Amino acid sequence: MTSVPDPTPDPVREQQRRPTLTPRELEILRLWLRSESKTVAAADLGISLGTINTHLIRIRAKYAAAGRPVSDKSGLLVRALQDGLVSLAEL
Predict the structure, then answer these.
(1) How far are the Cα atoms of 13, 24, 65, 68, 69 from residue 17, in angstroms, in the given order?
(2) Which residues contact 59 (CB under 8 A, 6 or more apart)?
(3) Which H helix or E strand runs over 11?
(4) Whether the Cβ atoms of residue 47 and residue 53 lie closer than 8 Å to each other
(5) pTM for the full model?
(6) Which residues contact 41 (CB under 8 A, 6 or more apart)?
(7) What does the DSSP 8-state code read for residue 86?
(8) How many angstroms separate the CA atoms of 14 and 83, rounded?
(9) What is the DSSP string of 55-72?
(10) What's the half-sphere exposure (Cβ side, CA atoms, 13 Å) at 24?
């Protein structure tokens, strides 16, 4: 007899799978998700495009380490919405 996994989400387990982003990573993620491009986000923050890319690489690495990999902007948007890091209202 095979057991069926419980489909009810476990809030504790889900919390453990959320990466811990620094305040700066959150700021850059939110701005980039609202911006038309990385270049616009970099200009708005007064930082280089390379710095934006470095932060986004680190954010993606943290999601991958948590077992929730993302490869593009839409994937990061979905994860940020799922984790309550952004809301539709602020986009």
Answers:
(1) 6, 20, 9, 8, 11
(2) 19, 21, 25, 28, 29, 76
(3) helix 11-16
(4) no
(5) 0.80
(6) 28, 31, 32, 35, 52
(7) S
(8) 9
(9) HHHHHHHHHHHTT----S
(10) 9
Measured distance CA(68)–CA(70) in Å, rounded = 7
Residues sharing a CB contact under 8 Å with residue 45, sequence separation 6 or more, in sequence order: 27, 28, 31, 52
Residue 27 half-sphere exposure toward CB, CA atoms < 13 A: 10
Model confidence at 34: pLDDT above 80: yes
Q: What is the mean pLDDT of residues 21-28?
A: 96
Residues 13 and 82: their CA atoms lie apart, in Å, by: 14
pLDDT for 3-22, tens place per residue? 555 555 555 455 558 999 99
Can you tell me the distance from the alpha carbon of 1 to that of 77, in angstroms, rounded to the nearest whole number?
A: 40
Name residue, tokens 């934006």: 52
Contact 41, 82 (CB under 8 A): no
Distance of CA 63 to the CA centre of its chain: 7
